[in-house]
Design brief:
This protein has 252 residues and is mainly beta. The protein has 3 domains: 10-114, RNA-binding S4 domain (Structural Genomics Hypothetical 15.5 Kd Protein In mrcA-pckA Intergenic Region, Chain A); 120-181, OB fold (Dihydrolipoamide Acetyltransferase, E2P), CATH 2.40.50; 188-240, Roll (SH3 type barrels), CATH 2.30.30.30. The protein contains 2 helices and 19 strands. The strands form 5 sheets. A 5-stranded antiparallel beta sheet has the order 5-4-7-8-9, with no helix packed on it. A hairpin with a 5-residue loop joins strand 10 and strand 11 (137-141). It is globular and about 55 Å long. The relative contact order is 0.11. The model has no long low-confidence stretch (mean pLDDT 90).
């Protein structure tokens, strides 16, 4: 008999390395449901609540917390314990007064505590653009959501100020665009993949090569200590025009 859909279980050994679980204590672990982030770049809420934050000891306790609507992701109550929380998601727990933003680290993803004022927005990278009927533009973002930009005259390119790899500042939970910053030299950026994941600073150089995919172009980022790091464009996430829009973990 042929395969019937995707497997619903996951062994601990092949699970993402940054998940805070013991690899040999048990055989199985929870598998995130399909959602806005891929499995290799997310954490299911069960792991966030139980293993990262220590608010529960068992899956049953996690389910109780979730069912009582005590966990919010991006400003909305989340009722799925296997929901995949990923890059730049804002996780709020009003009962204990804690709010976190999911940011990259050298090991993968980590939760960074943020203030209540900062929990009102989220940064989203534009992955691609689609021209819709009537010349309107649909922006496809890194977390799976789409934003429709209506233009009065599609023949006027100055109305389209958005480009792939730019970053939008989205309000939560209504998801309105409240800011936009371009990918350019001098912009504040964070590295989200590769051996330098979690590093951040200013973009000082962007190398362009002919006959090469844009995402593979080399980008040089300089941190506040003057140290420079190189990575490919696919691993660059702009977080502000000149200064970061978000608070960040202390650089190591």
């Amino acid at each position: 008999m042929g395969k019937k859909g995707e497997k619903k279980h996951l062994k601990r050994k092949p699970a993402p390395k940054f998940w805070p679980i013991h690899r040999k204590e048990f055989i199985w672990t929870v598998k995130p449901e399909p959602g806005p982030h891929p499995i290799f770049n997310c954490m299911p809420l069960t792991l966030v609540i139980r293993d990262v934050l220590g608010l529960a000891k068992t899956q049953r306790e996690v389910n109780a917390i979730i069912s009582e609507e005590k966990i919010m992701v991006d400003g909305k109550v989340q009722r799925d314990s296997l929901f995949p929380a990923g890059l730049m998601d804002v996780i709020s727990i009003p009962d204990v007064g804690r709010t976190y933003r999911v940011v990259p680290s050298e090991k993968g993803l980590t939760l960074h505590p943020i203030e209540k004022e900062e929990a009102g927005f989220k940064l989203c990278r534009i992955e691609s653009k689609t021209v819709m009927r009537g010349g309107h533009i649909q922006l496809n973002l890194h977390d799976g959501r789409n934003v429709l930009i209506r233009v009065n005259d599609p023949k006027k390119p100055e109305e389209d100020v958005y480009r792939s790899m730019d970053t939008l500042k989205m309000s939560l939970p209504d998801q309105e665009i409240i800011g936009h910053t371009k990918l350019a030299e001098g912009a504040s950026a964070m590295i989200i993949g590769g051996k330098n994941a979690g590093r951040y600073g200013k973009i000082v150089a962007m190398e362009e090569r002919t006959a090469q995919k844009r995402g593979k172009q080399l980008v040089t980022i300089e941190d506040t200590h003057g140290k420079r790091f190189q990575t490919i464009l696919d691993f660059v996430f702009v977080i502000g025009e000149t200064e970061p829009w978000i608070s960040l973990p202390e650089a190591t």
